[in-house]
Amino acid sequence: MNHKKIVITGAPGTGKTVLVEGLEKLGYPCYHEIIRTMTAEAKSKGDTDAMTVNPLTFVDDPMAFNRQLLEGRLAHYLKSDTIKEPLSFFDRGLPDVLGYMDYFEQAYGEDFTKTCEKHTYDTIFMVPPWKEIYVSDNERLETFEQAEELHEHLMAVYQRFGYDIILVPKTSIPKRIDFVLNALT
């Protein structure tokens, strides 16, 4: 099978989700980010007056939350093995979980690392922070400066797993889509 798994990742507010949605509109199979739904659910059960950057402040068991996130992304990864199209796109990959855990200085076991080592992607596109388009909202709690720090952690974790990262230029969504598709040919 010549199926390729392509990750579009980056810090919050970089335009990666809109990029993935654009690829999906062109007919490519896409697996969407699950953290926004998980964060909203966690916040609905927590103290919303204590809003912080870290969604883990809204959960009773941060490790269980991260494990659920890793398992959700793994389910997307495994589901992509069942399709026949040559490319599938992921709004974040498994290593993103570790990048965020590193940022929040959370320890994780070898099982997290082994999951990332065993389930690899073919190409990683990183969408860099872009202050002019950055907006925070109810699920995106980070400041732009924190997004820049998260970007560095995401770059580091993907490099740690041996990936070559392709930086997506700061330009319009149609041009970003063209850039990604041209880089894959």
Describe this structure in words.
- The protein is an alpha/beta fold and 185 residues long.
- The chain is built from seven helices and five strands; from the N terminus they run βαβααβααβαβα.
- Helix 1 (16-25) crosses helix 7 (173-183).
- The chain starts with a strand and ends with a helix.
- Mean pLDDT is 87; it is low at 47-52.
First-to-last CA distance: 17 Å
The helix-strand sequence is: EHEHHEHHEHEH
Number of strands: 5
Rg on CA atoms, Å? 16 Å
Task: Give a brief rundown of this model.
This protein has 185 residues and is an alpha/beta fold. Helix content is 47%, strand content 12%.
List the helices and strands and how they pair.
Blueprint: E1 4-10, H1 16-25, E2 30-31, H2 35-45, H3 62-80, E3 87-91, H4 94-103, H5 110-118, E4 123-127, H6 144-160, E5 165-167, H7 173-183
Parallel strand pairs: 1-3, 1-4, 2-3, 4-5
